[in-house]
């Protein structure tokens, strides 16, 4: 289905990341992937030793898991979406290696107002915390797309997918405050980009809301087991699995689709419940 197609996969932290399931599904269907992970780059300035050690370990975990799950030859690069120079350097790498993309998965989120599964009330969230979460989790869809476009790295009829959560539009049973606003922005960005890019060269942009999933680092840092079980019981089909999400992303990434600007639920039907 994806013979001759190449997709950028962001957001792999380890083998349990949702993005890893998508990358596997693309490869199973004959496509190629380029994977990016957070790591120290020459564009970082004034990093503390602690921050440097964290980023080095993050990149090491990312690279090991990509090579063991997707194969040693899989192309890996550093990408920090908060640094325009890092995005540009990544684009230059793709150009130097003659790689053109047929789309990408945005699977990036960060919210420092959630610590040890405890979430700051919105009234205590600082402007800086608000902007940091927005920059990483929402604006990055614009900046990454823009850099790829301006460097002519996205083929016509490309497809872009990002990952969201029901909290973008409804107050959830577990506290999910600051990041829910960034997810709402991510979904709105999806719709606006779908119009802008569809008219430009047929590029599609869609977003998928997934069930709560504790297997990943981000999920484990945020969710409680009882919250996941609650969603599982409330959903007519039970919580969707990462494989279900990967299958749906594959469907949206495949060439010649006519679906764009869609906010799609892969959540076992949780969203229809009152
Ligand atoms: N786990 C869930 O329950 C769930 C449910 C619905 C949607 N999602 C979304 O799925 C996506 C992937 O999350 P996951 O659950 O697989 O967790 P994960 O921890 O595996 O992935 C989050 C990724 O974001 C990356 N990231 C953070 N800051 C970055 C930066 N500045 N530059 C580049 N990358 C950065 C991390 O390195 C990590 O790879 C996120 O957008 C998340 O909100 C998760």
Describe the structure.
By secondary structure, this protein is α/β, with parallel strands linked by helices. It has one domain (6-272): Rossmann fold (3-Layer(aba) Sandwich). The protein contains eight helices and nine strands. It has helices spanning 18-28, 49-70, 84-96, 127-150, 178-201, 217-222, 225-234, 242-253; strands spanning 6-9, 32-37, 75-78, 101-106, 114-115, 118-119, 154-164, 204-210, 263-266. The protein has a seven-stranded parallel beta sheet with strand order 3-2-1-4-7-8-9, with helices on both faces. It has a two-stranded antiparallel ribbon with strand order 5-6. Helix 2 (49-70) links the parallel strand 2 (32-37) and strand 3. Helix 1 (18-28) packs across helix 8 (242-253) and helix 3 packs parallel to helix 4 (127-150). The longest helix has 24 residues, at 127-150. The chain is globular. 39% of the residues are buried. The model has no long low-confidence stretch (mean pLDDT 96). The structure holds nicotinamide-adenine-dinucleotide. Nicotinamide-adenine-dinucleotide binds next to helix 1, strand 7 and helix 6.
């Amino acid at each position: 289905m994806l013979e001759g197609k190449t997709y950028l996969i962001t957001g792999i932290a380890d083998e349990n990341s949702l993005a890893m399931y998508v990358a596997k599904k693309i490869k199973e269907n004959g496509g190629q992937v380029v994977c990016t992970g957070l790591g120290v780059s020459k564009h970082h300035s004034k990093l503390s030793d602690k921050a440097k050690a964290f980023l080095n370990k993050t990149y090491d975990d990312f690279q090991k898991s990509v090579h063991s799950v997707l194969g040693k030859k899989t192309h890996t690069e550093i990408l920090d979406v908060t640094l325009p120079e890092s995005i540009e350097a990544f684009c230059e790498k793709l150009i130097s290696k003659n790689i053109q993309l047929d789309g990408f998965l945005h699977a990036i989120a960060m919210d420092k107002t959630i610590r040890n599964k405890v979430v700051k009330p919105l009234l205590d969230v600082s402007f800086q915390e608000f902007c940091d979460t927005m920059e990483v989790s929402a604006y990055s869809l614009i900046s990454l797309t823009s850099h790829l476009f301006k460097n002519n790295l996205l083929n016509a009829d490309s497809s872009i997918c990002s990952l969201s959560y029901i909290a973008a539009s409804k107050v959830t049973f577990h506290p999910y405050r600051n990041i829910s606003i960034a997810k709402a922005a991510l979904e709105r960005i999806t719709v606006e980009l779908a119009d802008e890019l569809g008219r430009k060269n047929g590029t599609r942009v869609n977003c998928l809301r997934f069930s709560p999933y504790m297997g990943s680092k981000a999920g484990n840092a945020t969710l409680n087991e009882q919250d996941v079980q609650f969603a599982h019981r409330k959903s007519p089909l039970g919580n969707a699995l990462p494989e279900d999400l990967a299958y749906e992303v594959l469907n949206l990434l495949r060439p010649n689709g006519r679906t764009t600007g869609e906010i799609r639920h892969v959540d076992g039907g949780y969203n229809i419940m009152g």
